[in-house]
Amino acid sequence: MLVQTLSCLPQVLAREWKTTASIQRYSLAEMRSLLREVFRTNPFYKTKLENLNIEKIRSIEDLSAIPFTTKGELRKAFPGAISEGYTPEKCVHESTSGSTGDVLSIYHDPFACSYYDAISLREYIGLHMWPWYKMSYIRFEPQPRRAFEQIGLLRKYYIPVTASAEEQLRLAQSHNPQVISGYPSSLYEIARIYREDSVSWDLKMILSNSELLTDSMREYMESAFGCPVYNDYSSFELHNIAAECPFKSLHIHVDNNIVEIIREGEQAAPGETGEIVVTNIRNRAMPFIRYRTGDYGALDEEPCPCGRGLPVLKSIEGRKDEYLILPSGGHVSPRVFDPLDSIFHQYVSKFQIIQERKDRFLIKVVREGNYHDGVTDMLVKEAKRCFPQPIEVEVIPVEDISRTGRGKLRAVLCEVAS
To answer: Which of 75, 88, 223, 304 is the most exposed place for a label (fewest CB within 10 A)?
Structure first.
């Protein structure tokens, strides 16, 4: 796989500097190639796409002729979701966490994984992350070593997300890495402790992934660690979707994944928020074509000053099951409560906002030593101000807030049936 990764790398590195139109033409041609193979070899998509004229897919807008694919469909179709000529034993296996009760087994063909590694190297090189750098990464389990790691490049040291923040910090400092990667909730807890630590640490950057990163969280961590924080957007199904450049624009790896924003069933205009729908153009073993991610975001029509032709995601707003329901029946992004961060940073080590009813919210907080009754009043007042319609708010002190099976902390949770 290392040979394949290195053979892909020169073109992968050169492609991001081409024009957006040129990159999209390349990606659409790769997609048509994928679709032709899918018609011949994939039982699930042969039936699903039987009336599709592949040669008419010439633009992003033309993708609307292709029906969406859901996790539930692929799970139900298994093993028919795997293309002929591939077997589970010859593929790289992963699975989704099943937080919605719908676990999906995923099979990537080896060449796709080599391409993913080349895209990852492009991300790292773009941030001036040099081969001799070491990375501590906080995760629910160790990752398989990538091909370039097996020859000693960008060495990774695993830190369990289930460990306490104090233990995570101790392990990270014992590795003495130049880079830390992890969930923003974990990185934030470590930053709070490190801010009071007298031990200096020459970190070059922080890589955030898998949870929503708010602007205030980023600013807090950058202040604590004294280095930039960069965001990454990926998934087990699709791997590298988007990553930030030094200008902190979230560039879409459109030569790996074609991204659409869907609003009320139609492609949204730039700047409009909708569901992120992705077509992976690399994995021929188990294709994901117009796959509904359940994430919400918006595209940016303004080019990034870095000069890369890769298009930009303007924002990621959260998952469908995190969207909050207005008393009037509409929906609002969980980011509506981002202004509360300025209070949390001062007095709270962990928090979780739960919508119990359309007009009632609970805010669970793990209090710091300087927490006082006035903080409760501030949180109630600010939460009511943030929400666009009248609500009740109750703040509840707790000893801890549990994470999901894979260690994520769900900062905002909607328990109201839509």
So the answer is: 223
